[in-house]
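Reproducibility note. Readers wishing to regenerate the assembly model reported in the main text can use the exact inputs given here. Chain order matters: entities are listed in the order in which they were concatenated for prediction.
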Amino acid sequence: MLNKGNQNMKLKSLLIATFFATGLTAAHAAEGELSIGTEGEYPPWSMADAAGNVTGFDADVGNLLCAKLEMKCHFVVQAFDGLIPALKAKRFDIIISGMSITAERKKQINFSVGYAELANMFVVKKDSDLAGVKDIEALLTSLDGRTVGVQAGTTHAHFMEKRASSAVLKTYDTLDQMQIDLASGRVEAAFADSSALQDFLGRPDGKEFQFVDVKVLSTFDPTLGEGIGVGIAQENTELKARIDKALCEMVADGSIGKASQTWFKTDISRPCQ
Amino acid sequence: MNFELVFLAVPTLAKGLRLTAMLTVASVAIGFNLGLALAVMRLSNNRALSGFAKGYSTVFRGTPLLVQLFLFYYGLGQLSFVRDNPVLWWIVGDGAHCAVTALALNTAAYTSEILRGGLMSIPGGLVEAAQACGMSRLLCFRRITFPLAIRQALPAYGNELVLVVKGTSLASTITVLEITGHAKRLMSQTYAILEIFAIAGLLYLLINLVLITLVRLLEAHLTRYLPR
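Running the prediction on these inputs yields the following structure tokens for the assembly.
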């Protein structure tokens, strides 16, 4: 009995200690340390393994940025639609998660300069009548009444709500879930950025699917953003200035372009304006 | 609080209210009957039947509803024989049908335990008296055992109904646009989390208030012989 009581005490104090330890690291990020919120489930942008290590283009940009700023990085993995609320709640300092800069998001948080931009595309079954469509307006009209999958909270979801409101929209928490439903035939088309869909097409599940040959860019509709930027809390203007400067240097010296070649086999870096 | 947003959110979320109510009604209707059958099986002398009922209730009560939903929706959806079978695909292919199935199977497990408690509380003498009057087993169940068991089980069952209503919110994770699904979509459009989820919470509270009142009225009706 005595022994058991002792163990309980030990366990309790251990729990209390862990509680305080986690509380402290979350609340007071040490000086010179940058915590980065990222999705962790969006290959090849951001992939987190079971141990919490993050790899991908986002991770490379984050690590390059931290090296430039001479700060220590650590990644916090969080579902995409919770990233902005979590940044506002100060769970981390910045967001690097392939996040497009949009007017709606700018009301909530600040963004760095856009450092990359990707084409957005639709994926359909190879035998679908949509597969041969070449014109964006024709494509959007022919989506009428069809089920289209998008990821919740993305510019793709907002774009579909605005430009193809007669399509039946299905929203998913993660891209993986959307791809499962695309493969099983629950959705007829999926809309996302070309890099993420390219990854799906390369998998066994994706072999019956293909791109619709229409590149949807932010020049077509501003809902799709102003390129991809780093999300920063609105009050953190000093950090924004430092990140902007660092990003512009990173694009100019080609280090972002190099990371992009590694993950996308193409340069998606966006020059500073 | 932004009141403009409240006016935007209420009609959208009210659309989800209908689906939440339908999910609840359908899964409770299936789940209650299944649960009653399982409770009777559990109390039967046949070891295979009671063993099955016991195993069923252990599995479904012992795993989270969210895990069950994902297994049914994403898990079964990956199997080609499920996709090729029109009946199975009707159940698994559609998010709402899948949610009703998972919720019904889940609530059946809890319902069976609640009803088992009710059935076990019936004094043996009552059943013997009914049999002495010449009632068949079915007639005795219908007239004596079941009405008394329900009276005993009702307070606990009311609790289970409330849990089913709240459980429907998990259907939003498999693309069903019920109250929580609409709330999540509005959240990612406006980021007004406080207003939207406060309204969503109020709608659930409203459904549950109605439900709790109905259960109380039914309870009063069933115990009308008691002095109050």
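We highlight two features of this model. The longest helix of chain B spans residues 3-43. Chain B has a mean pLDDT of 93.
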